[in-house]
User: Which sequence fits this backbone?
């Protein structure tokens, strides 16, 4: 069935024309070391044993594939939710940080750095650093630190040092720049855990491999529930695109599966306050990767906007750029308001408070009609705990 | 054979001093004035930085000056106008330093063509991969008579050093320690070993050291082991009064004399 895979798409560090490693010489040795070793490390029995054991006993995998009965009735189709929100730390992010911290250990690194926007990847990184007893430094935009106080507190409690990024727009993009600079300054002992399928090769491929557990589990769960190991549709939200990469991974070569990318259009694609990179992005280079990105006519990178801090990234993972441009994936632009409506709806219908990011995927149900016989999987990438302040505000709950 | 202001200066038997200038900083139209003043102080060539929103190989000072310049309204089109203005008065070699995204956005061949037309001599594009240079850019740079500079670091292997030496048509930018621009680390035995290794491996190209040079002592150390020095962050920081001319004179004098 799935004899074509993502690996046919990924060649010499590129997905079609997207990907590569556009890095200064100062990062060459770090990236080369990773590139030469990551596949051997990941494929080793020792790594696989430890990775699988931690995902099972520490993260709580497999996550359920839940048939959402009332949601299915509402939309007159068969809707399954892949419950990544039930993972330890509340989102899919930890699948990747567990994988990368084990790679870092195999490479003999003693110091871990990461960037974070809303703080989810920062918390997931600080968590695995505590677990492995490794020094952890998290770069976070000064503005994000102010608006994501609970996650900052978690990172600190977990023992991480949170360094404010004070340059540029003081958000995720700038935190990433600062993390890259730290890596340049500490090439020997430091490992950089990137939080999404972005950055220079081999990060997009490595992160996608760690997140592929999502679709690997889906196959057997679908077989059990639907007598077929693939769905008709998979819907996932995309900022950088790691949860979508994981949810699509096993099905990219299966043309019977329609892949839906939900990106954040913020206040609207044309509003100037958007993160809809797939819709309005153009070819360029951001954070070491050739991909679609939001830039002005002079090639300066534009600061994105979305109500969801996890989706406001001005680029998009090179895999997704290729899936969108080759029309393998269907692109949906979801506004702040559409995401909020869907968040409230699933909360009332299923008793699940979703993350704002995942609510963008849920909103695709209002954009596309699925037939009563079709099976639709929505990757519920994270839970809504971190977004309660926004929900309280938006839904007048106080 | 590439023959321009830069290649003609680099064959001279001397130690070179190069200064990095952020185009459009501190004021949008200061660029030509600053370069002219530096030329009058016997600076051998200029690295003229095109400000980018996300300069990942640069430190906080260059990022900050870049932000100021972008807010001043600096664009690549204006950059070329300023280069023409400099060229109308001076033959000081000008090396474009900028990030690949802006070149892709402008159009690759159009960019190189414009560089030659306006009077750019050399190029530093820190995030352009070597293989992409060989496949696509080398031939265009030769066509438009532009010299390419690559960076090397203490982590660069000997094999890679040899390849870089072969591909270089400008000079080799020696990163003095593994630090982003603007850091200040002292030279150590490790650094000396690194410089020795470069000396033995790089046989063709001139070696100009950059990163971390900020005063007379660091400047003299850099010159002792290399063919020249590039100063960026420390120079930009010195532009802190209303009188650019005085700032520039004071800075260059402080490098050349023990304080």
Assistant:
């Amino acid at each position: 069935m799935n004899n074509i895979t993502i690996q046919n798409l990924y060649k010499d560090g590129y997905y079609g024309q997207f990907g590569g490693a556009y890095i200064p010489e100062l990062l060459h040795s770090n990236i080369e070391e990773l590139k030469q070793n990551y596949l051997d490390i990941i494929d080793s029995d020792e790594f696989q044993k430890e990775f699988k054991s931690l995902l099972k006993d520490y993260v709580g995998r497999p996550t359920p594939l839940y048939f959402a009965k009332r949601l299915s009735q509402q939309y007159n189709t068969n809707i399954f939710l892949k419950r990544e929100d039930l993972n330890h730390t509340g989102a899919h992010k930890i699948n990747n940080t567990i994988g990368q911290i084990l790679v870092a250990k195999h490479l003999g690194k003693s110091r871990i750095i990461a960037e974070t926007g809303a703080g989810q990847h920062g918390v997931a990184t600080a968590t695995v650093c505590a677990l492995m007893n490794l020094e952890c430094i998290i770069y976070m935009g000064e503005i994000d630190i102010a608006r994501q106080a609970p996650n900052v507190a978690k990172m600190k409690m977990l023992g991480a040092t949170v360094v404010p990024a004070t340059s540029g727009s003081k958000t995720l993009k700038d935190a990433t720049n600062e993390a890259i600079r730290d890596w340049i300054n500490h090439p020997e002992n430091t490992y950089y855990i990137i939080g999404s399928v972005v950055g220079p090769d081999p990060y997009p491929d490595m992160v996608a491999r760690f997140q592929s557990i999502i679709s690997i589990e889906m196959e057997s769960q679908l077989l059990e529930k639907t007598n077929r190991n693939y769905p008709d549709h998979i819907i996932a939200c995309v900022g950088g695109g790691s949860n979508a990469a994981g949810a699509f991974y096993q099905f990219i070569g299966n043309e019977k599966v329609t892949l839906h990318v939900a990106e954040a259009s913020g206040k609207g694609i044309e509003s100037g306050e958007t993160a809809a990179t797939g819709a309005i992005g153009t070819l360029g280079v951001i954070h070491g990767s050739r991909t679609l990105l939001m830039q002005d006519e002079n090639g300066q990178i534009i600061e994105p906007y979305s109500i969801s801090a996890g989706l406001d990234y001005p680029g998009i993972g090179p895999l997704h750029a290729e899936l969108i441009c080759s029309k393998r994936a269907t692109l949906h632009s979801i506004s702040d308001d559409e995401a909020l409506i869907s968040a409230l709806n699933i909360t009332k219908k299923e008793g699940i408070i979703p993350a704002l990011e995942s609510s963008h995927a849920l909103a695709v149900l209002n954009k596309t009609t699925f037939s009563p016989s079709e099976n639709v999987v929505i990757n519920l990438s994270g839970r809504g705990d971190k977004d309660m302040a926004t929900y309280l505000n938006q839904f007048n709950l106080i | 054979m590439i023959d321009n202001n830069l290649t003609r200066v680099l064959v001279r038997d001397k130690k070179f001093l190069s200064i990095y200038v952020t185009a459009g900083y501190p004021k949008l139209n200061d660029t030509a004035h600053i370069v002219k003043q530096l030329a009058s102080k016997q600076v051998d060539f200029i690295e003229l930085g095109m400000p980018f929103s996300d300069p990942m190989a640069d430190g906080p000072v260059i990022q900050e000056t870049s932000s100021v310049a972008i807010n001043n309204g600096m664009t690549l089109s204006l950059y070329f106008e300023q280069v023409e203005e400099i060229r109308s008065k001076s033959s000081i070699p000008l090396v474009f330093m900028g990030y690949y995204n802006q070149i892709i956005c402008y159009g690759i061949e159009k960019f190189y063509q414009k560089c030659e037309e306006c009077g750019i001599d050399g190029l530093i594009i820190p995030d352009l991969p070597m293989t992409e240079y060989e496949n696509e850019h080398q031939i265009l740079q030769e066509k438009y008579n532009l010299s390419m500079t690559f960076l090397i670091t203490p982590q660069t292997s000997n094999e890679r050093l040899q390849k870089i030496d072969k591909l270089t048509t400008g000079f080799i930018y020696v990163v003095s320690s593994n630090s982003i621009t603007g850091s200040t680390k002292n030279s150590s035995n490790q650094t000396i070993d690194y410089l020795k290794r470069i000396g033995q491996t790089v046989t063709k190209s001139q070696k100009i050291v950059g990163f971390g040079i900020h005063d007379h002592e660091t400047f003299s150390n850099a010159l002792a082991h290399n063919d020249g020095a590039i100063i960026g962050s420390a120079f930009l920081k010195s532009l802190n009064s209303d009188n650019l001319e005085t700032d520039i004179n004071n800075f260059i004098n402080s490098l050349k004399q023990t304080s």
